[in-house]
Amino acid sequence: MNNQALLSVRDMTCTWDGVHGCRDISFDLHPGEVLCVVGESGSGKSTLLQAVSWQARPESGSVWYDTRDRGFVDLASLSSAHLRLLARTDWGFVRQNARDGLRMQVSAGANIAERLMAVGQRHYGDLRRVAGNWLQKMEIDTGRLDDQPAAFSGGMQQRLQIARNLVTHPRMVFMDEPTASLDVSVQARLLDLLRQLVADLKLAAIVVTHDLAVARLLAHRTLVMRGGRVVESGLTDQILDDPQHPYTQLLVSSILQS
Amino acid sequence: MNASTSLIQVRGLGKMFTLHNQGGIRLPVLRDVNFDAGPGDCLVLAGPSGTGKSTLLRCLYGNYLATAGSIRVRDGGEWVELTGAPEQRILRLRRDVIGYVSQFLRVIPRVSTLEVVAEPLRERGVDAAAAREQAAALLARLNVPQRLWGLPPATFSGGEQQRVNIARGFIGGHPVLLLDEPTASLDADNRAVVVALIREAVAAGRCLIGIFHDEAVRDEVATRILPIQPAIPAGALE
Amino acid sequence: MNSAQATVARDDHYNFAYLDESTKRMLRRALLKAVAIPGYQVPFGSREMPLPYGWGTGGIQVTAAIIGQADVLKVIDQGSDDTTNAINIRRFFGRVTGVRTTESTREATIVQTRHRIPETPLREGQIMVYQVPIPEPLRWLEPSETETRTMHALAEYGGMHVKLYEDIAQHGHIATTYDYPVIVNGRYMMRPSPIPKFDNPKLDGNPALMLFGAGREKRVYAVPPYTRVKSLDFEDHPFRVEQWDHCCELCGSDQSYLDEIILDDQGTRRFVCSDTEYCAGRQAAGHTGAAGAEAAA
Fold this sequence. Notes:
The structure holds 3 protein chains of 3 kinds. By secondary structure, chain A is an alpha/beta fold. Chain A has 9 helices and 10 strands.
């Protein structure tokens, strides 16, 4: 086990019916590193993300995480209370559809401040100020702090979801197709924002996507998945410029050249 | 050149491409490349087009995977085998040891020219203000007008983009610097600036390995020439 | 005001207190568990009562489980002994227990209430039974019962503060004025039933035993005597009770919770104590308010 890793996955298999899902997955993720998991529909990439974030229980293999208080632990050994706390403080999970990751019935400010309230912050003025700072960071007008998310555009909702996840300064963020629901012009802006945030906050991230351009822009390393397995892994630029596996070569050659 | 002073040692390097989607044909591009390079070298790769010079540079950067042989790079006091190295190790080498000036600038939207050039310093922990200052100095030297520094390079001319690329490559002070046609789209004045930059780098003890189409530039900067032989002799392919 | 009202005749067709003995036992076990874990919602087998859900079946079942022949029962609704509900519930217990009933807070051993805590301070040995519509304080945030149970188990209460934050953001202050959420014994979050927040401080360290029953939702919970009960708030928006510019126009009290009553079609209004027994008691002791002074003049 690589002890400098933030997350270590070993021989992990997670299926929902014994057949479909992901198999024999092994990789490490280091602090501040972005890993893209690329594949087409049905490749098992979303299941992989669910499994490593312990939202779906793997049926074999292990996932280890370097916690702040207990060192490097097997997630299977943590109590559900501890896991929930971890998910609220040290991890973020950004869903493809922002509506699934937001409380639509409360204001933007409340959405961002919720995690802080969950860990015991009780000063309204401070909470509001922090929420406002995050809106600014996400390039949303701070005058919209009290607006409901339903009044935001899709791109703004996604940025709000990201802010909501980052407010407790997690060290690791999982993202499931963060730009897939957005218009192409909006995607570019969000990707760039993500790129900056990841660098500024030294986030480690696992980003699942079917879009190789997202991998090119965001990720240091990339895993290519097909039929539930990783068929190739390496530095993103190497995967895209010198793909080895037949499937990777097919994927890369399918990118429309601009 | 002896082992204790070289920075790169290449032995028996080969690169074979297998095109699975074209019936699995195999294209050998590099075969049995051997050389050493060290501080104060400006090693120029020579040979006709298509003989794999770019491929060699990309192998040295870890962008292409070598299929045979060994590439060893010195990182501080330690020799690292690049072929088969773990990705994190290669990323560290790229950050601290090996720089790369590619033929084309990869443009990221919304990032200003100054930030693009400052980034390699930021990655090594230099604070933002100092990094931007150094970036500004290099850009000024390369005659990139100051009014462009705050703009993303996407709309720049080919020559302007190439100069941004060069600034980004040189700013990090990497011990090894790989240059792929750095002067291709530049006019005479700017070519001269790049030549000066190369000479200074060499004089400062950096190791440069480059491809230069322009013979005049090549003659001005090269300390050694490495001829690259095609892996398959011309005429042997049908 | 009568302190020893003639009780309705005991109807022998019903078991004492209407419920069968094993049901009462089951309820008492649930109540013991509730007392042992202050603020924690204990499920119980809620029975079909001879009145619909929403009319106090939970409170009635709790009272039925604990009432004994020697008890004295007071029933109030919105602070008053003489509303339809209070009268009906009192009469119900008269028929099924024959127990003495009263309007006097001081004399009662059990006080069943909807929507108010009496102004007269309670003492050790008294039991308050509250009628609760929705026991779950997090239901507005999380519709799933399994999820809210997990949140209570892990004390994940940050979401409740989201509601308070939202109130301040939208209205400038916390807009919840009744059924105001509290933390009991430093551990469980609880809904104190739809009493006005004015009454929340009465829960804190009260010498009486507080029992809460929700019939439709099938939960009981409890606050034992002398237990710490703290209303939720923010450091810079502390919990505050309602205040009036008026005193009770009947008895002159400036300490009690006042109801605003419209007297005529011209919109003439009058502020009077919500707790009718308390108000009558003060009047009997010679206190008067503006209306009383008018009448005397």
